[in-house]
Write the structure tokens for this entry.
Amino acid sequence: MMKCIKCRGKAHIKLPRHNARFCADHFVEYFHEQIQKAIKKNKMFTHQDNILVTVSGGKDSLVLWEALLKLGYQAEGLYLDLGIGDYSQKSKELCMYFAGKRSLTLHVVSISEWLDMGINGIAKKVRRPPCSSCGLIKRYLFNRFSVEQNYQVVATGHNLDDEAATLLGNLLHWQTGYLSRQSPVMPSNHSNMVKKVKPLYRLTEKETGAYAIIKGIDYILEECPLAVGASSIKFKKVLNDLEIQSPGTKQQLYFGFLKKGKKTFMEEDKVELKSCTRCKQPTTIDLCAFCQLSDRLSSS
Amino acid sequence: MMKCIKCRGKAHIKLPRHNARFCADHFVEYFHEQIQKAIKKNKMFTHQDNILVTVSGGKDSLVLWEALLKLGYQAEGLYLDLGIGDYSQKSKELCMYFAGKRSLTLHVVSISEWLDMGINGIAKKVRRPPCSSCGLIKRYLFNRFSVEQNYQVVATGHNLDDEAATLLGNLLHWQTGYLSRQSPVMPSNHSNMVKKVKPLYRLTEKETGAYAIIKGIDYILEECPLAVGASSIKFKKVLNDLEIQSPGTKQQLYFGFLKKGKKTFMEEDKVELKSCTRCKQPTTIDLCAFCQLSDRLSSS
């Protein structure tokens, strides 16, 4: 029998990268400890802050919300309806079910309120990959919503697999600008900009999945249908292959970057943020990318 | 019919990362051009220099020797007998056959002349992976031999696959010291140190294989039996998987590093070279790693 390294009871979860095995209770304890470590180490937020968790209906963001509440933080949710047919419908229902069952505040915003159409329509109209418009829109609306609603910080469900895959992609293309900015915490450096944090960056996708099962969280299993073939999925696969052969690879890559690699890229990229001439949101250009997109969608 | 992009004749080789197809003759031309580009761009050597090519019996180093001669350079060979049974025997014969057929000068040195045993025995005695002792010994003897024999530069057969795999490994572990030094050219910075260059760094393993076939070069097909399970092989596989999905990945990773990444690591690592108190070869410590290994092998 595989034994829990904490209580010597029956272990259900094996974590080769930590050379550890846990029963369900001690896995939850480990999981919470890793989140606390992430929060403390990066001074993400305190028990006094109002946190906005952006939830997609997937396991990571719902698990994050659950864990933050268990750890005594004040966290409310925001679901952004991307208008991707059944996928969006189902994921919205799962978020509402999660919030309803726990009597939590969940804000629901639809991108069609802002841009008159869903991601599919936008991608077709601007003739760019859907993930690229989707990323831009999410960053903008998450920030704008949280500033207007007076949240101190936005927390997203990015896990170690996400961060390591993004890092690998940035390294393969030597995107030095992105490399200098990739971080578990993005401070506010504009009056209309909220701090963004990723409290799950020390935990893998497998671990958030296990936590969801233990806590009985219903989440959407499907990947976004528009993300099929996205390079992030390809990089995750490669890192999973390496992880099986050398447990700890993802962690070494990402934590090593944070400790040793990141600072070497710091000098490269110093951007001055100003306010968009129309919407007053932070931007490096006169009319921000969101307002430009909005103009492009309403023309012709 | 797939056509050569140069002469519109029948193409035999397809290079997706360059979006090119070549007949045998134009492939050879392309191959030579890439080597010339590597030499010129990095000021590796001139037609006046005496070059020592270290040959292993594998395709890359024999192909390098052949191509340098075709390009009119003065290149002689050094085969280092590692004492790995049949593998070393066979690879030595292939090097001697190559040199004999072309009436070239090939030096043959055996590590047993220096350390009284082969790599297998050394690895067992020092209880470390064979590749680690082998690398140390090769670096030392290649350098010492070329200094004593008055060669201006040592050329090794490292190709793009080798360099990209090494880079990926250094990045996964954030070996900032290695990252600051990884380069197609290592200048001499000690009176007993020879310049080292890698003229094949712009060409893939597949391409050196094709060149070997076209030129009728016999080489040893087997990988070194002691390298089974080496992490370099694992990283090459991962990069090959990515290359198939996105042709150009290896090149982007390595060339991008040379252009944009490498300089960020430059400040990190400034080592002062002195002379080994016993053998006078360059070292960062008093008694160099080779002399220490030698002592360890002769003790007990």
